[in-house]
Amino acid sequence: MYQPIRLFDDIFYVGVNDRRTHLFENMWPLPRGVAYNSYLIKDEKIALIDTVEIGQVEKFINKISAIIGDRAIDYLIINHMEPDHAGSVSIIRNLYPEIKIVGNKKTLPMIEGFFGIHDNVLEIKEGDELDLGSHKLQFYMAPMVHWPETMVTYEASKKVLFSADAFGSFGTLDGAVFDDEMDFSYFHDEMRRYYSNIVGKFGSPVQKTLEKLKGLDIKVIAAAHGPIIRSHIQEVIDWYHRWSSFDTDQGVVIAYASMYGNTEDMVEVTARALAEEGIKEIRIYDVSKTHSSFIISDIFKYKGVVLASPTYNNGLHPNMEALVNKIQHMGVKNHCLGILGSFTWAGTATKRLKEFGESLNWEIIDHPVEEKHALKKTKYDECRMLGKLLAEKLKN
Ligand code: FEO
Prior knowledge:
The protein has two domains: 5-244, Ribonuclease Z/Hydroxyacylglutathione hydrolase-like (Metallo-beta-lactamase, Chain A), CATH 3.60.15.10; 249-395, Rossmann fold (3-Layer(aba) Sandwich), CATH 3.40.50. It is 34% helix and 24% strand. It has helices spanning 57-68, 83-86, 89-95, 107-115, 188-199, 203-213, 233-244, 262-276, 292-299, 318-330, 349-359, 377-395; strands at 5-8, 11-13, 16-18, 23-24, 28-29, 34-36, 39-42, 46-49, 75-77, 100-103, 121-123, 129-131, 136-141, 151-155, 160-162, 220-222, 249-256, 282-286, 302-312, 315-316, 336-343, 363-364, 369-372. The strands form five sheets. It has a seven-stranded mixed β-sheet with strand order 1-2-7-8-9-10-11, covered by helices on one side. Strands 17, 18, 19, 20, 21, 22 and 23 form a seven-stranded mixed β-sheet that branches. The protein has a five-stranded mixed β-sheet with strand order 12-13-14-15-16, with helices on one face. The chain binds MU-OXO-diiron. MU-OXO-diiron binds at residues 80, 82, 84-85, 146, 165, 198, 224-225.
């Protein structure tokens, strides 16, 4: 038995929870799992909006069957082709051979490429409307939020925005599906982590999409991951404005690599100076222990960043190199950077970290502190000064 979950009388949630997968995109940790959201509109015509990751397809089909019985699905709307959403397209096509697959001119070649499907497809473009009976679906392109073919679908009678990855969160839906059924603050960090890890590179396209959608009257945001939002609409839109423009809070993320504790000593001294100067939000992470997913998410939250690494084989500690590579790859903007390093016979770590900061046009606090062997008085004082200078920058 399955008790359908309704957004409205004839609009249903048919998504699934995944608590088994450890890594999203085989890279980003899922300590709280993830939900793949899909929606069904039952009208004169039936439309399914997105599918789910292939491993969850049986539960997904059972939910659909419980709602529509023997009726066929008329349309499958593909908002986004990444396989966490489109993974079950060919199975749905096999079960419902008459289903018409709806996408835009960038979606359709992907459908052919991934699934070999090229018949019974409907190409729509920006502003087109699909009539289901009492429900009309309108389509808006949202390129690079998160792939080039991504679009969003607006249901005009109930004012529901089916937003694909936009406004999605990591984390399963544990009983509560709607934001007003839960402590929504639980999802704030997970929404930022999803945004920063998955979509964060594409701040400018996100802003263009937000601008485009500004005129829509949105009562419900039905994203492809995480809670369905109906009580925090403006709040999450404001979050997206901030994250996509790299607008951050006063605070500092200190990420360090340390093999034997000498670099870590420098971090502790710098952090103490930051606190003494009134910075209340300080998050220290060992890059060999905390996954970059969480560090990057906090870098999207806080303006200040301190990176600290020993020199290792004439470069950065490899785990710090991996972190800065990811941040560089994402093109994260608008931060103040403090740099710390240590070495035993030849120092190169701070040079590499400075190059990293310059490549992203981050403001670099003068000057990097690099100690030979254990931390001594002169460099101890320089670490304190670096913390003080960074704090002053953040307070102004
Ligand atoms: Fe949730 Fe870009 O996939």
